[in-house]
């Protein structure tokens, strides 16, 4: 398995183009660019679904609360409450011991 490395959007576009030009030869693309098979496969799939915009790295950006729908806000609140509940349960277990 190939160890992952950071790539820019331009590199991802180049890698996907190379893969598609060579008849989706994933092993050849892995050898050429040193990126994992799974990652190349995912990028090709995203490119086919959304085009170049699908290759953007969307990690790290969260929507401002103003842009969220009510369902998204409730999901985040639910996640927070679950985390607080788990934290409180762990604290209780520690205090009992």
Beta-strand proportion: under 5%
SS content category? mainly alpha
| Helix coverage percent | 55-70%
According to DSSP, the number of beta strands is: 0
Order of helices and strands: HHHH
Figure out the total of helices. Answer: 4
Mean pLDDT: 87
Biggest sheet architecture: none
What gross morphology would you assign? elongated
- For the record, the count of structural domains works out to 2
Tell me the radius of gyration.
21 Å
Description:
- The structure is a single chain.
- This protein has helices at residues 9-21, 26-33, 37-50, 70-96.
- The chain has 97 residues and is an all-alpha fold.
- It has two domains: 9-55; 65-96.
- α1 crosses α3.
- The N and C termini lie far apart (44 Å).
- The mean pLDDT is 87.
């Amino acid at each position: 398995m190939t160890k992952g490395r950071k790539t820019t959007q331009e590199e991802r576009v180049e890698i996907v183009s190379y893969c598609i030009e060579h008849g989706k030869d994933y092993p050849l693309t892995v050898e050429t660019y040193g990126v994992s098979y799974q990652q190349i496969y995912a990028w090709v799939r995203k490119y086919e679904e959304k085009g170049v915009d699908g290759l953007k790295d969307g990690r790290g950006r969260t929507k401002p609360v103003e842009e969220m729908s009510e369902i998204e806000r409730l999901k985040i609140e639910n996640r927070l409450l679950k985390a607080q509940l788990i934290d409180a349960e762990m604290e209780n277990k520690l205090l009992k011991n």
